Each structure stands twice: as structure tokens, then as C-alpha cells.
């Protein structure tokens, strides 16, 4: 009975640990403007986290992740051009670049990005991107983004240097083709079993095995 109680106590502790929310840290910016959201469906924009309109400033946010739930980071980027009322070149003008860059990290366990780790940067592998005409209408991005430069490079690096708080392997990315006012981006976060969850399952099986052993009839020799 003491062993069974111990197994139950350990399993309860493990289940409590696995139920704790993880934390998503976001550090990002865009040329020229962005809004970032957290969604449980790639087809839904999701809950707003924050935004910014100064590409030389890194914007940092945190969001809670509930254990066992899959998520998507959604970013809507805007390029300021003569077509939407700003004193800059038209869409696609090389003198008026557009791009988004960021670093993302999950602490607390129980989740991973599509690269299989708890850390992600903007790149052309783990993100989807689409050019859109109306930023108020969200649909899941399906295209592969294009990359212009790594952090600290390109026109952004020549003007401002490296973007603080963002990893050196992060890339300035945008949708293809690069001739629109707006782009939408998506990256997946997948819930995965934690070590404590596996431990709880193993302890449960051990407890059941022990109970079965204790209840097994004793066969005496004649």
C-alpha cells in the first residue's frame, strides 16, 4: 500500500508539473510596421500580442502557452509606400525596402517549433508567407518567404547595424513576389510530451503491475 501511495504521489506531482504553462518570448521588428498574434489555428488570425512601427527598434513581448495546445505565431507586415499615403517609393521600389526579422524562444518545456527545438529565428525554412491586398483579412500563408540579408546585413545593417535582441542567424524576410503593400507570416508551435508526462505514464503502468501482482492468487503445491 505504501508503494502504491508513493506512485500516486509522484504521478500527481508529475501531472501538476506538466500542466504548467510555458512562456513564449518574442523579439521582433519590421520595415515599416507590424502586428503579431498568437492563434490556435493557422486559418484564424488569433489574439493580438503587440506591434510596432519603427524598424530600428526591437519590440519584445511574452505570451503564455497552455500545455497540450498547438499554436501559430502570426505576423502582419506593412510597407509604407506612396500607394498607401506615405512619402516613399511605390511597392517594389528597391529604394523602399520591406522586411520582417525576429527571434522567438519557448521556456518551460512541452512545446517545440517546426525545427524541433525551443528556439526559432526568421528564415525561409520554418516560416510561411503570403502577399495580401487587405491586411484585415487573414488566410493561412502558403508561400516560401524570400530572404534579403542576415541580421546586421543588407540596407538595414548599413544604416543601423545589428537588430538588438535578435539572433545573428535571423534573416530579414518578406513575401514573394515583393511588390505589395502587405505581407502575412506564420510559424507553428507544436505541443510535445514532457519528460514528466512520460514519467507519470511509466509510474502508472508500474503501479498497475504491482496491484496485479498483489492480487494474483497464490497456488500452493499439493
TrEMBL record:
<keyword id="KW-1133">Transmembrane helix</keyword>
<feature type="transmembrane region" description="Helical">
    <location>
        <begin position="195"/>
        <end position="213"/>
    </location>
</feature>
<keyword id="KW-0812">Transmembrane</keyword>
<protein>
    <submittedName>
        <fullName>MSHA biogenesis protein MshQ</fullName>
    </submittedName>
</protein>
<feature type="signal peptide">
    <location>
        <begin position="1"/>
        <end position="21"/>
    </location>
</feature>
<keyword id="KW-0472">Membrane</keyword>
<keyword id="KW-0732">Signal</keyword>
Amino acid at each position: 500500500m505504501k508503494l502504491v501511495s508513493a506512485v500516486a504521489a509522484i504521478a500527481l506531482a508529475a501531472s501538476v508539473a506538466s500542466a504548467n504553462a510555458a512562456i513564449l518570448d518574442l523579439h521582433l521588428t519590421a520595415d515599416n510596421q507590424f502586428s503579431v498574434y498568437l492563434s490556435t489555428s493557422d486559418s484564424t488570425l488569433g489574439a493580438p500580442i503587440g506591434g510596432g512601427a519603427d524598424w530600428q527598434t526591437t519590440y519584445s513581448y511574452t505570451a503564455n502557452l497552455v500545455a497540450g495546445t498547438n499554436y501559430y505565431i502570426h505576423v502582419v507586415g506593412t510597407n509604407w509606400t506612396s500607394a498607401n499615403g506615405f512619402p516613399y517609393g511605390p511597392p517594389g521600389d528597391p529604394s523602399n525596402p520591406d522586411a520582417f526579422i525576429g527571434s522567438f524562444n519557448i521556456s518551460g518545456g512541452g512545446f517545440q517549433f517546426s525545427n524541433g527545438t525551443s528556439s526559432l529565428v526568421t528564415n525561409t525554412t520554418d516560416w510561411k508567407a503570403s502577399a495580401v491586398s487587405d491586411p484585415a483579412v487573414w488566410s493561412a500563408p502558403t508561400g516560401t518567404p524570400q530572404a534579403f540579408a542576415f541580421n546586421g546585413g543588407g540596407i538595414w545593417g548599413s544604416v543601423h547595424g545589428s537588430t538588438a535582441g535578435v539572433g545573428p542567424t535571423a534573416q530579414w524576410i518578406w513575401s514573394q513576389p515583393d511588390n505589395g503593400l502587405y505581407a502575412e507570416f506564420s510559424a507553428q508551435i507544436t505541443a510535445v510530451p514532457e519528460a514528466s508526462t512520460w514519467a507519470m505514464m511509466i509510474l502508472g503502468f508500474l503501479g498497475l503491475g504491482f496491484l496485479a501482482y498483489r492480487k494474483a492468487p497464490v497456488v500452493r503445491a499439493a
